[in-house]
Amino acid sequence: QITLKESGPTLVKPTQTLTLTCTFSGFSLSTSGVGVGWIRQPPGKALEWLALIYWDDDKRYSPSLKSRLTITKDTSKNQVVLTMTNMDPVDTATYYCAHKKLYCSGGSCYWYYFHYWGQGTLVTVSS
Amino acid sequence: DVVMTQSPLSLPVTLGQPASISCRSSQSLVHSDGNTYLNWFQQRPGQSPRRLIYNVSNRDSGVPDRFSGSGSGTDFTLKISRVEAEDVGVYYCMQGTHWPLTFGGGTKVEIK
Fold first, then answer.
1. Averaged pLDDT for residues B62-82
2. Contacts of A35 in chain B (CB under 8 A)
């Protein structure tokens, strides 16, 4: 059974750096075709994809936030860490991590996006 | 970036009646691998998103068969054949064909 759980501070001050950890179980990030992504949702607003890291350490970022984001993985701990620098009140949101994998069946393969999500963690940016 | 445009923003529905949500993309979502990575998510109040449909029309396990997805290219639809009380929430489409991944703005389904 796949589970993911986000952890980190609930309150950060403007200009500070946010560090969030996604701890997962039921899969390994050393397995070919597996990835973990981060998605956020400001209160009452839509979902926004932030970053994603693959088993082979390939990383993808939202272009609008790329200069502020870093995603890393610790395969031995089953964790993915997202850091976001220079936090601002507009970054107040619930941050989710989610699982992605390459699924192959009958000779064809496709990407299986975000079937499993964490519970989310609300981060408030305020002085 | 591929813009995902959902309509309507709000959808009041009578219990037992059908509902339909549209999602249009600014570019074709057909991937070079031949797949179309259009997903639908349901987010009930206070909960994490839950995927309902992947690759346009494939229903996830445990999803009631009153939910169905259709479409191609740039035009996609999520249909609920008979709305039940538990279907209240916000529905999002998401494309996974082009980087960056993008979500629609959401459609709020509520009971009349």
1. 98
2. none
Contact B35, A110 (CB under 8 A): yes
Please state, for a pLDDT cut of 90, what percent of chain B lies above it.
100
Query: Which amino acid is present at B1?
Result: D
Chain B residues contacting A via beta carbons under 8 Å? 1, 33, 35, 37, 39, 41, 43, 48-51, 54-55, 60, 92, 94, 96, 99-106
Residues contacting residue B106 through CB under 8 Å, at least 6 positions apart: A46, A47, B6, B9, B43, B90, B91, B92
Residue A43 near residue A93, CB atoms below 8 Å: yes
Distance from CA of B54 to the nearest CA of A (A): 8
Going from the first residue of chain A to its last (127 residues), give the mean pLDDT of each consecutive group of 10, the final group possibly shorter. 97 98 97 97 98 98 98 98 98 98 90 96 98
Q: Which residues of chain A does B100 touch, with a Cβ-Cβ cutoff of 8 Å?
A: 49, 60-63
Separation CA B4–CA B60 (nearest Å): 22
Class of residue B77 by CB neighbours under 10 A (exposed 0-12, middle 13-18, buried 19+): middle
CA dist., res. B65 & res. B60, Å (int): 10
